[in-house]
Amino acid sequence: MRVAGIMSGTSLDGIDVAIVDFSRAARSIVAFRSTPYAAPVRDAILAVSNTTTTTAAISRLNFQLGELYSKAVRETCRRNGLPLESVNLIGCHGQTIYHESGRNTMQIGEPAVIAERLGIPVVSDFRPRDIASGGKGAPLAPFADFLLFRHRRLSRVALNIGGIANIAAIPAGAKPEDVVAFDTGPGNMVIDALVREYSDGAQLCDFGGEIASRGVINAPLLTELLKDPYYRARPPKTAGREQYGVEFLDRLKRSGLSMPDLIATATALTAVTIANAIKRTDEVIVSGGGAHNPRILNQLSGRLPGVRIVTSQEFGIDPDAKEAIAFAILARETWLRRPGNLPSATGARRAVVLGQVTYS
Questions:
Q1: 24: how many CB neighbours lie within 10 A of its CB?
Q2: Closest Cα partner for 179 from 207, 153, 136, 149?
Q3: pLDDT for position 4
Q4: Secondary structure in 3-state letters for the chain
Q5: What does DSSP assign to residue 232?
Q6: In the prediction, which pLDDT does 344 show?
Q7: 204, 149 in Cβ contact below 8 A?
Q8: Fold match flag (2-137+321-358 vs 142-315)
Q9: Which whole number is the average pLDDT over 156-160?
Q10: CB-based burial label for 40 (10 Å; 0-12, 13-18, 19+)
């Protein structure tokens, strides 16, 4: 079975498509491509992600994203020499525009459009069923982390630094119920938002941590930010744009610090909250856009002595592709009518089959 996973996260950098082959013996990633969002699309997503929007704006963007997702899958196949007809199923996470942990959630990107344009069944809306069964609706990727990274003798933490950072702690010889996973706090989204403002939209992220390297971490501001009760709350817990959106950015800017200093401090906040969330482990396996930021990785190494920190590339998994791969795996589980959530990660009362299927 060949499954395409589509992921577009809170970082708003674009649409990731990973195509995964499943056989009885193994799974292999046969294609990956990331399609950046055009600036007007990114602006439209930000507009509907605020609490003051219109149903018309959400509805229009829902269908527009369905078209963009369809094109992204088609182009991923074309550029990798794969016949579109060789893809049997699509798993589409959709674009989260609102997530109230454990209460409600909304991802858009109309699956009917995708199924109609590509002639392939689509699994979508993964999060609501977990919430309905008492969970937080996130994180869901730890199911894939468990399959991809568990080890008989080594304890590992799968760390994804996307817009939000999240970890999945996988003890040595773990069973699914042993995995503990949660969002640690901001990943790249605060840094990216500051960089976009600093560069007047010319730069979307802090490439190589270069801007942060020109700034100075403001210890008093960092200390104040770390007082947020979220960081001391016990898992399961999730975070999102609701905590780290416009209001959070305004709070940072009211400090009066220069943009490089704010970016340096936001980078430190990401690293410190991740490190504080990680207990004893042998390895940390990093994926997501933050895997390309040496400032974050160096600060993690300094705060986690004796822990081997590597990117998922060492395991043959492109760090940018891991989340899309996860939703290809989850879509297959749904298609086979098998549960895809980990109650130990989301807090759900039980493991449930996730998502809805739109047939082609």
A1: 4
A2: 149
A3: 98
A4: CEEEEEEECCCCCEEEEEEEEECCCCEEEEEEEEEECCHHHHHHHHHHHCCCCCHHHHHHHHHHHHHHHHHHHHHHHHHCCCCHHHCCEEEEEEEEEEEECCCEEEEECCHHHHHHHHCCCEEECCHHHHHHCCCCCCCCCHHHHHHHHCCCCCCEEEEEECCEEEEEEECCCCCHHHCEEEEEEECCHHHHHHHHHHCCCCCCCCHHHHHHHHCCCCHHHHHHHCCCHHHHCCCCCCCCHHHHCHHHHHHHHCCCCCHHHHHHHHHHHHHHHHHHHCCCCCEEEEECHHHHCHHHHHHHHHHCCCCEEEEHHHHCCCCCCHHHHHHHHHHHHHHCCCCCCCHHHHCCCCCCCCCEEECC
A5: G
A6: 94
A7: no
A8: yes
A9: 98
A10: exposed
Question: Would you place residue 25 in the very low, low, confident or very high pLDDT band (cuts 50, 70, 90)?
Answer: low
Per-residue model confidence (pLDDT) at position 24 = 62
Is domain 142-315 in CATH 3.30.420.40, yes or no?
Answer: yes
Which token pair is 8? Answer: 């577009």
Choose which CATH entry (3.90.580.10, 3.30.420.40, 3.20.20.140, 3.40.140.10) describes domain 2-137+321-358: 3.30.420.40
Q: What is the pLDDT of residue 279?
A: 84
Q: What is the mean pLDDT of residues 327-351?
A: 97
To the nearest whole percent, how much of the chain has pLDDT over 90?
91
For residue 64, how far is the Cα from the chain centroid?
A: 21
Reported as a pLDDT band with limits 50, 70 and 90, residue 350 is: very high
3-state helix, strand, coil in the chain (%, to 5): 45, 20, 35
- Give tens-digit pLDDT for 106-118: 999 999 999 999 9
Distance CA 291, CA 159 (A): 9
Each domain of the chain, given as residue ranges in start order, spans 2-137+321-358, 142-315
Q: How confident is the model over 174-182, as a mean pLDDT? A: 95
